[in-house]
Design a protein that fits this description.
There is one protein chain. The radius of gyration is 15 Å and the shape is globular. It starts with a helix and ends in an 11-residue tail after the last helix. The chain is mainly alpha-helical. The chain has a domain of 50 residues. The longest helix is centred in the last third of the chain and has 23 residues. Helix content is 66%, strand content 0%.
């Protein structure tokens, strides 16, 4: 699937309410990491990308609840 098709599909699913909740998205990412083959030469890069995706979901979830200036988010 091409990048444009992915984005169009993602937006359509989101508009239809078919997306995961942030909690379910993080659980799905965890499952995908568990399914990765640790012996694969791509393991480290695949897991890193999935962890970065999880960090994005986490940041967006907490960004909706608190602004960075509120002091509720951890300092970087």
């Amino acid at each position: 699937m091409k990048k444009t098709d992915v984005l169009v599909t993602v937006m359509g699913m989101a508009r239809s309410g078919l997306g995961f909740t942030p909690t379910d998205a993080l659980a799905c990412i965890s499952e995908l990491i568990e399914q990765e083959d640790a012996q694969s030469p791509y393991y480290d890069s695949n897991v890193e990308r999935l962890l970065r995706l999880g960090a994005c979901v986490w940041s967006l979830r907490h960004g909706m609840l608190a602004s960075p200036s509120s002091g509720m988010l951890p300092k970087q």
